[in-house]
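Lecture 7, part B: from sequences to assemblies.

Below are the input chains for today's worked example.
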Amino acid sequence: MIETNPEIPKTTQNEVLVFFDPFADNIETSAMTAEDCELLFETIETMYTEDKVKFSDAAEKFLKRAKAIETDATYLGYLEQASWIEARMHFMCGEDHSLNQARLNSGLFDDHVHVEGDKHDDEEKDNKKKLRLRRTRERVNKTAESLWSIIFDSMNSNKSIKGSK
Amino acid sequence: MTNTEQTDLGRTKEISEAGFEKGSRHTGGELTLHTQIPDWASEPTDFRSPALNSNNANDNTHHGHEHKAPKPASAVELLESEKKDGDGYVDIVVKFSEILNTPGLLGRVLLYADPNNPELGYLPLVIMPDASNPGRSIKLVKFDEPYNPETGIDEGKLLALSFETMAKEQAGFGVHGRGSFEGGHFTVAALASVNPKTFQFMERKRHSGTHKIIAGSVATDLSLNNLLTADVPMPSVKIIDVTEYPKNAAIKLRWREDMVDNNGVPLRAVHPDATRLLVGNMIHSLGNQGLDRVSGFVTLASQD
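Predicted structure of the full complex, as structure tokens:
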């Protein structure tokens, strides 16, 4: 139960809050009272004062190493290779760099941003359109063929009728 | 226009000339990624200010530093700690149902107490929205290196927390163009080059798949797929659906007065170098063979 405090908004004064550990696997078993939380904080404070908390500066050390690697010759070689691949991907995604460079040189446009739904997605739409067109053509061709066959058949039958006369 | 060229590494490259010029111009020995502070993390509210618990929203000074006046945060239920020893800790109590609507909470570096492992001390934690389930889910990003009251939150811890918060579309990761290395797209290509599931997903979803993968957790994906070196300080990420908790369910975290930047503004996990160092580490650990695999994936994708 939370102690009454005149500065606390009404929602907490009228409601008994139940505290949960968001990292617990099971929501129901992780419920704690306000007193449980206070006790937990006190326990942690004791851990700090009794030097039982083991500190680490691994993240800080990583940061220094990572920054140092950025000037490493091997890394720069990999980065060059990665930039080739990235440029290919950029081009593949429908980006015309020559056109963009010309636009930038003209001074009329800012750097571009192209968004989702560019060449890759458009390609799928184009493929569907092409498929529809091909099927329509096939249907038209079949209809035309059957029409021609009817015409030829009727012409032939007329000839044979004439011949029989 | 397509060129074939030998690189310093003796590899033959086929690429549009303009594309390569862009690539080398923008890397030029330095990896540059477009980065921005996500909107959801852009308003640091000072929990110390009495404005939060009263109508006094004009009090914008603290310890001699001028702050942006904090917005009244009715959703935040703050209990000023008793400060028995003047230890500077402030308790942060927020209902699960109100986490996403609490100004100044998302992106802010807080302290988490693990009920099962109190000997770990307070662990740095950040809450952020989960882009794959907007409005319902949140991501809790925790770094298992204890907060040190003597030194505060160092840059390394901030960087570790930022691997998750900054490798997101809202932080510019995966955004095209802008004259920088497209780290998001390259990262997803690297993942697809080693992970068959990601490969199949990309094959099915194509370009839009990239954005869906970035909405997940690429930093964790990179680590799980051994695309980062073992020394990368990875945070652990937990996604929870806030609607699954009871109405009166709350979370109790802490914050300490020294967890501020040089201007006295409360720290946020938005380290500007996070994605650059993450992608740089990935490129370094990929090496020649790994980069060839990525290149192979790109070739396959372009032939579709």
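Note for the exam: The CA atoms of residues 162 and 269 of chain B lie 5 Å apart. Keep this in mind when comparing with the next example.
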